[in-house]
Write the structure tokens for this entry.
Amino acid sequence: MGLARVGTKWVYDFAEGSREMRNLLGGKGANVAEMTRILGPDRVPTGFTITTEACVSYMENDHTAPDGMAEQVDEALARLEATADKTLGDADDPLLVSVRSGARESMPGMLDTVLNLGLNDESVQGLVERTGNERFAWDSYRRFVQMFGGVVRNIPGERFEHAIQAAKQEHGVTLDTELDVAALQALTATFREIFRDETGEEFPLKPRDQLEQAIGAVFDSWTGERAVAYRRINRIPDDWGTAVNVQQMVFGNKGETSGSGVAFSRDEVDGSPQPSGDFLVNAQGEDVVSGVRNTQDIADLRDVMPEAHATLMEILRTLEAHYKDMQDTEFTIEEGRLYMLQTRNAKRPAQAAVRFACDVVEEGLLTKAEAIATIDCEKLDALLHPTFDPTVDYGVLAKGVAASPGAATGEIVFSAPDAVQAGAAGRDVILVRPFTEAEDVAGFHAARGILTAEGGKASHAALVARGMGRPAVTGASALDIDLAKKELRVGETVLCEGDTISIDGTTGQITIDDVPLVEPEMTEYFQRVLAWSDELRRLGVRANADTPEDAIKARSFGAAGIGLCRTEHMFMAADRQPKMREMILSDTVEDRRAALDELLPLQQQDFEEILEAMDGLPVTIRLLDPPLHEFLLHDEDDPRAEALREVNPMLGTRGCRLAILHPEIYEMQVRAIMRAQRAVTQRLGHPPSLEVMVPLIDYERELEIIEELIFRVAREEGVKREHYLVGTMIELPRACFLADTIATHADFFSFGTNDLTQTALGFSRDDIEGKILSPYIENKIFDRSPFETLDAPGVGQLVRMGAWLGRKTKLELKLGICGEHGGDPDSIDFFHNSGLNYVSCSPFRVPVARVAAAQAAIRRGDDGGW
Amino acid sequence: MGLARVGTKWVYDFAEGSREMRNLLGGKGANVAEMTRILGPDRVPTGFTITTEACVSYMENDHTAPDGMAEQVDEALARLEATADKTLGDADDPLLVSVRSGARESMPGMLDTVLNLGLNDESVQGLVERTGNERFAWDSYRRFVQMFGGVVRNIPGERFEHAIQAAKQEHGVTLDTELDVAALQALTATFREIFRDETGEEFPLKPRDQLEQAIGAVFDSWTGERAVAYRRINRIPDDWGTAVNVQQMVFGNKGETSGSGVAFSRDEVDGSPQPSGDFLVNAQGEDVVSGVRNTQDIADLRDVMPEAHATLMEILRTLEAHYKDMQDTEFTIEEGRLYMLQTRNAKRPAQAAVRFACDVVEEGLLTKAEAIATIDCEKLDALLHPTFDPTVDYGVLAKGVAASPGAATGEIVFSAPDAVQAGAAGRDVILVRPFTEAEDVAGFHAARGILTAEGGKASHAALVARGMGRPAVTGASALDIDLAKKELRVGETVLCEGDTISIDGTTGQITIDDVPLVEPEMTEYFQRVLAWSDELRRLGVRANADTPEDAIKARSFGAAGIGLCRTEHMFMAADRQPKMREMILSDTVEDRRAALDELLPLQQQDFEEILEAMDGLPVTIRLLDPPLHEFLLHDEDDPRAEALREVNPMLGTRGCRLAILHPEIYEMQVRAIMRAQRAVTQRLGHPPSLEVMVPLIDYERELEIIEELIFRVAREEGVKREHYLVGTMIELPRACFLADTIATHADFFSFGTNDLTQTALGFSRDDIEGKILSPYIENKIFDRSPFETLDAPGVGQLVRMGAWLGRKTKLELKLGICGEHGGDPDSIDFFHNSGLNYVSCSPFRVPVARVAAAQAAIRRGDDGGW
């Protein structure tokens, strides 16, 4: 854990590392080392990495570097100077370095970076001499002072910006690039005065001091607010720490034969084979990703610097083949020579991910299993997101960059906090900003979509939105945003906070017309990915569907059946609620039976339609579950209604307990089910695959009693025992412990992980989500809601115990889960590993679950070796 | 399981059995066999036992006797006839037999019995000849027809009673005994007509048919309503079945040198050494226990039949020494000769049980462990029951038999169903009846006390009340009860349903004055039993106490500390609730802190008093647990109050979750605790034994955060770490699974089995007890509330898992439980076997728990061999 052990190696030269050392060297450090190995030392600027363990030790020891680290940095620096044949701070030919963060997982823009480190009053002269470009050297120097002040000492950016504005006014120019050497020298002096003013110290001129402080600042940025917020959302543990990469600077801002850019090995939006990216001539890398200057497409590089372009294309192919995944690279061209600064697996939207997966299998680069494993299946949801209805005419208010696919409609909000607040209140909002920054990330999470006036496909807004699967349109330059007035102008149109707007991140269109959103066609690529997933996975995927419509949708998404058909939703319908109410408030069993008799044909009709829609696939119908009180009117003042109120309805008279108290309710439901079974059997010519499920079983005897009732009614209705299954929800901790006894009366178990989470953790979902989640995440008690991803150590143990005990009694016992965890990839992985037969989730999550189930099988090596 | 296996032995002669064969032969059969062995064959009428396995087989095979049973009964009957030298149905010297039930556990009056079997028109003549008593013979015959008709064919008793009434009118007599031979002959003929009329069959005259039907009827009585209800209450499994004992009749009704009685080897009420009991001259045994005739005290037998008395006394001593327990016997004297019909360990009230335990150790009959094991510790509660305050003058309305100790006050009800209904509504009632019968048992359970106008210490009412530990006064003959009018008259006084009455079952007094009940002194015997229990037990016993008064009471009952001091009850006090309300409804943390500052000194005062009262013993103070909403007014219409309402408050924002959201609340409480600790340390000169307990922990991190808070505040208040412990409730299933991680932050665990039962079973205690319990017991889902006795397979597994995992991390971890199960003997046995250190229960249950803990140790053989 990085305690300061004698002899610990804290620093690795790039030449010593490899991509396997990601945990120690961070993603960037490991990849730069790997690139150095593949592309050779001349293509990657030399440098070294200070390990994540050093960072952890630094955090644990009150922000003090571990013993030995300083000495190792000195030694590595000496080697770097020898290789580069330059010296840090040298007045003749100075070495300049960048100091960059690099965590295990990429956290774009969240951690700090210092460039041009090593400049001071002497070395700037050396830079002038070596480059023969006095203006470049002084511009680099003033940039360095500015960046160092901001990053290392937290000096507000506007202090430097104001000084630049003043200088431009003084010299009567409008662009930074128009400032001459003298102006830049004066500006550097002013920046150092600002530094002294803000920190009470002189700007450090010794390069070794600069380096030490910069390294500490990168370490510190790991625990900065932005980084912490990002980790929360992206589920990155706090105790990983970041590595620090010290690398010789190369300069993309040395004139028209220089430049910087980002390049993807394939199109990062649609996944098609041609590389994509942005670049800027005569610029450093930060200029490209900041979105401040409008970038050029990478294809244009062919015309500007054909040789560099050709080399880059070849390198992209080499890297992709090596990493067996789509690559996201950063490069700099210094006076015509291409340097690769970074490569990593490209984050990409679902459409690009599925296209990539299909293409690389065709190309023979990856096996199907390897290709499926490259997909972030959580994002596949976006492929099922709506788009603007193409058959409807609507006015396009403006058009921007199609930065993250999917369409969204919502009220305009102009700040991340407003988005968070509105999102918490359940409102759909579109976050509208000139451009976005790291501190806006929480707002992305809360918003339906993101719209910016600036930035391209590689801008912060685009990257983060794609990372989260949120639709985004960026760089819509026709937008004139006044944050102070909370107003958005597009020509004559003025929109205010709360006005409705729609964006389509697949086309870049923006509209204020009332355009309906339509469901996407499933692309051929996606279909192929799903088909391969079906070959690879071992876990069945069913859907939770309560209506014939849902059943049809589920089928279209590839559900292998219905894992949960809740019968209670049918009772909520307007024509049924009064009858249900009458039934509940009956004074006698006879009255209740009379009311139930009226409900029976309606239930039967529902069941017939669902069974027919799912012909050939199993349908699990759950008998009535919620407390009866839920079916009454809210303002019911009948004393019988009052008697039904419960202190903790979740733990009250519900599920099978209703049937022990009032067997006539389940009897009606079972009769309706069995009559539907008979009717559908007649129409189809064969019996549908019917499964009757009993909720909330605690005791073997409960299920025995209800099983007897089901058998009896089925006999009475002439349905043979072999034409239906009887099973139970396992959703209480006791049932997991007693699953061996319960299994004697069950053909199948379906784990109800929602209720199991509520009981195992003692969390009422209704009460907890608003109040507890945020403070619990802030206090690092958990990193996400246990209702979203299964709590493996607690609830998961119960599931495994229930599964094991159930199968101990009945080897052939069918096991499924029908909580909302059934659509969550991490939970699906757990269920696969627990030997379950199927998961059941909402129809829209079925495709995600199919891929997630395949990935679980691949991860565990039981994918049949495809 | 008694399936009809070839070669199964279904029938055992008395001479073949022994008391070890109780499960097979039933209690009565095993004891009669054992008595035959000890006392010799001449002292016990000969007979045989049909096994409980035969009954189980009969029940399983649709009420058909298993193969081979009939033949074995024939063979046993032949042996019995040979031994008795008489033949069943013989016209000269007929054998008559009784056919009695006999389950593993005694179920007095619940199962059926047929006497005088073997009588018919021929054998009655034989009986006349052999006894020379024509009236006796014909009276026996008509009794047999009556009993057979009632028991075997369910003919309503009133049909026979009406015929007797008619006969008495016809002959102008008032007593049954005044009917002459001719009248009895006519009555027998009438009874056989009633039999034919009710059953459509002739009364069976062949003795072998009579026997077969009687055996079937006894088997059937096992599944009769009364028996099932009794088993529910007494927790006897349904699948045990009953044995059937066929035994030669002896006659206590052969004149003045005959008689029947029940005798206890010691006084069955106070346990003192002289034998007690009741008898009737010239009567059969049923007359004694029915309570219809007023019996004589067994001491009077010395005067009436001195020889039989002397023999009986000697036999009682022999049996007690043999069984090493107080004996409850039935005997018959036939023409001066004593026969023992039955013996069994005597059910006895707590005072008799503790007296017996002490005396037998003195006498050298039993070891301390053996003596403690004879106590039914569930009944000890009665010794802690109140009595009428002897210092207060009150009018005695009437006096009856002191049938079951303890005093009670309640509203009068006149039927068992009324008692059940009132009890369910939470009202205290006294069940008032002329006499009680088996079908009244449920009413005993629901009532605070029982009062009857008829019957003695051996009456049904007395037996059952003592069995349940309910105070009872029987045989209060001054009471004139009109069930139809629901009126009770005593001289001029008329009491109606709902009027308040008080009874003292220790003295037999009845009053309608408002006499206060006072707590009993602990007798010397009880003190000795408790002291021995303390030597024997391994489990500590603490008390749950929230106030200094409770703490003092707990100490006086021998509590070894406070296992649960709930801090929330202090906030409910009138002077605190408004401040609590103010705190809860604060808009800012500052306002909340200000309100908390006012509460702090009040809490500190409470803690100081409790810590001082418990000086030298540990005090576990639990930090705030209930949801804040509970402290507000019911009609609070503040929107902030509304926001605190939860759908399932049991699973909501409570326990440690409050402290994660509002750390200032626990901070105030911990500060008050630590200040109290310092203040008391100064006054006592040494630190009290303080334990701070955190409720509702789910995650290790929760406890880590709160532990840090406790450490910090303790430091701030100058209390050293070694002067307090920090521990946690383990009351959620997740915490049991994660107990190894939680234990890293805990000095002790206290299992909160109330909440653990709620969550593991998904039962809200508030909602379930009224609605679910009865139907669940009726449906045999469970035999008692899981909130009363720990659900071992579910909740118990969680406790064991938590205990094991906690000790895995920390071998010295102190483990306790503080749910209400801490005072339940069966649950205490489970906790002992689970290796816990202590239980904590309400102060009144502490003595019971001390004895129960000793019994658990004795049962498991880890009582140190005392």
About this structure: The mean pLDDT of chain A is 90. The first strand of chain A starts at residue 11 and ends at 13. The first helix of chain A runs from residue 22 to 39.
